[in-house]
Amino acid sequence: MSELRPDITHGSGLRPDLAAIADMIRPGARVLDVGCGDGALLEHLVRGKGVDGRGIEISQSNVNACVARGLAVVQGDADSDLVDYPAQVFDAVILSQTIQATEKPRVVLEHLLRIGRRVAISLPNFGYWKVRCSLLVGGRMPRTKTLDYSWWNTPNIHLCTLADFVDLTRECGATIVEAHALNDNGRTATMNPDKLTRGAFGPNFFAQGGVFLIKKS
Amino acid sequence: MTEAPRFLHAMKAPAADAGLAVTFDAPLVLDSGKQLAPFTVAYMTYGALNAAKSNAILICHALTGDQFVASDHPITGKPGWWTSMVGPGKPIDTDRFFVICANVIGGCMGSTGPADTDPATGKPYGTSFPLVTIRDMVRAQKRLVDHLGIEKLLAVVGGSMGGMQVLQWAASYPGCVRAVVPIACAARHSAQNIAFHEVGRQAIMADPDWHNGEYQLYGTKPSKGLAVARMAAHITYVSEMALQRKFGRALQNREALSFQFTPDFQIESYLHYQGASFVDRFDANSYLYITRAMDYFDLAEEHGGHLSEVFHLNAPRFCIISFSSDWLFPPAENKRIAHALNAVAAQVSFVEIKTDKGHDAFLLDEPEMFATVRGFLNHAAGDLA
């Protein structure tokens, strides 16, 4: 389900947003990775942190890749399957670069907050200055390295800015525990979520994406 | 005692490996409360058991299957029923794994079934054979696995009724198996499935040659009834789309409709062939018993319907495989099992393979299924020599 291409990676070999998420997960935790792709993050967590990991993934070939890694992954859809998971059984639920591709992001987010004690989410930032410029100057729907689709074939049907996402977490009654900006150079930087929604030139303008750790208030 | 298996039907391929049979004197205590003693389990093995006895994979066959999973069938002479999955270099690699497949109790390929002689009367059991369940079949398999000196199976794999047995293995003997692959199955038989089975049974019992199940004494066979049962069942194994694609309204060996009841359409002729070829290798009473065993299957029944309570915390690793166009055991039924296992924190994977081939897809060339099974077993086997 992940729509981001692996580009600049950290020492772990993980995509930057996944490396930032991995840092948020405690060793030995019970983790559900929703939209786990080919299982790179989940395998890193299981092998490296002794995590008891599970995954949900929509693509059959990705599920096969996960199964071959020895991971426990259920082929399914975040939009329809999360309802089948009982409440508060996972210490952490991960949703990486997927929320923008769901049909009902708010419903999905509420399920994640119900299923997991903490939710780690990464998402692309539609408020990123290059995205803004491409629409403002180019007059075309933005197409970037991380959102490399035409308007008519993109799976990313619910794009938002980092500030928009912070608003949604508040509407869902969630607290932001940690927030990191994903920058152009593949690095992450801690950001203050309260400042995100105020002022024009913060991470909401400069960051390609964000990584958040949230929990039910 | 290990011996050569005894078959009900004449062998067209006497050169084929007929496998082995082992007879147990200690009774098999059945779910019905009755006992079966002595009882025989006929089986085939492929590949070699390693010194640690850690590379054994048990394959469970479906309703009309048998132990000849990867070698020529001694009665029909046809290739094994799962040669695409099992063999040297195949996903279930017999160069690496020791593969066991046993005929189910109640069957007609050498394991004790209704066509065998009841030691108490000296006559064929017929319908006096005790009803057996999926769990009884698995109990008999466990006796065989014990007999072979294997404490822990690397995996149990099977589709359809074979998948039910796989689930039963995980529920009954979780400590005796490392990984399980239930394919195209369900944790319970649905009303629709029971309905189709009842049509088949009634067709057999309506055949005057059935003689209340004592047809062996009359020297007859309810072949017409059994053929109709097979024809009806066969429709459930394929999807509407696949039937349309394969046959459409094409006519069989004729240019125009005959305005008679002889088979005009290719689909009719195909079903007739399916029915006719089946009766040459299968016993009608076995068909009654085995369909009944499937009807009775409801894994969660004795746990108040709570499937998750069936499985223990030490459950084996699961890889559940389903097919999008399977309307006999739909993906949703398979997924139910995955969610129940998730609820008890079992290691479970679930895949839904896109195909228009229906339930029978598990027996056909489905590269995604092969890739799933290969990857899963490779990982489960780990560093096995």
Provide a brief overview of the structure.
The complex is a heterodimer of chains A (217) and B (385). Chain A has 217 residues and is of the alpha/beta class. Chain A has helices spanning 16-24, 40-49, 60-68, 78-81, 105-115, 129-136, 162-171, 193-196, 203-206, and strands spanning 30-34, 52-57, 73-75, 90-96, 116-124, 174-182, 188-190, 209-216.
CATH topology-level name of the largest domain in chain B: Rossmann fold
Number of domains of chain B: 2
Helix content, binned percent of chain A? 25-40%
Can you tell me the CATH architecture of the largest domain in chain B?
3-Layer(aba) Sandwich
Which CATH class of the largest domain in chain B is shown?
Alpha Beta
Overall strand count of chain A: 8
Biggest sheet record of chain B: 9 strands, mixed
Order of helices and strands of chain B: EEEEEEEEEHEHEHHHHHHEHEH
Euclidean distance between termini CA atoms of chain B: 31 Å
* Total beta-strand segments of chain B: 13
| Rough outline of chain A | globular
- If classified by CATH, what would the architecture of chain A be? 3-Layer(aba) Sandwich
Number of helices of chain A: 9
Distance between the termini of chain A: 28 Å
Q: Radius of gyration of chain B in whole Å, from Cα? A: 20 Å
What is the CATH superfamily classification of the largest domain in chain B?
Answer: Alpha/Beta hydrolase fold, catalytic domain
CATH class of chain A: Alpha Beta
Q: Care to describe what's here?
A:
- The complex is a heterodimer of chains A (about 220) and B (about 375).
- In chain A, α3 links the parallel β2 (about 50-55) and β3 (about 75).
- Chain A has a single domain, classed as Rossmann fold (3-Layer(aba) Sandwich).
- The two termini of chain A are about 30 Å apart.
- Chain A contains nine helices and eight strands.
- The radius of gyration of chain A is 16 Å and the shape is globular.
- Chain A has helices at about 15-25, 40-50, 60-70, 80, 105-115, 130-135, 160-170, 195, 205, and strands at about 30-35, 50-55, 75, 90-95, 115-125, 175-180, 190, 210-215.
- Chain B folds into two domains: about 1-190 and about 300-380, Rossmann fold (3-Layer(aba) Sandwich); about 195-290, Rna Polymerase Sigma Factor, Chain: A.
- Chain B contains ten helices and 13 strands.
- Chain B has helices spanning about 135-145, 160-170, 190-205, 215-220, 225-235, 240-245, 265-280, 285-295, 330-345, 365-380; strands at about 1-5, 20-25, 30, 35, 40-45, 55-60, 85, 90-95, 100, 155-160, 175-185, 315-325, 350-355.
- In chain B, α3 (about 190-205) runs antiparallel to α8 (about 285-295).
- The mean pLDDT of chain B is about 95.
- At the A-B interface, α3 and β3 of A face β12, α9, β13 and α10 of B.
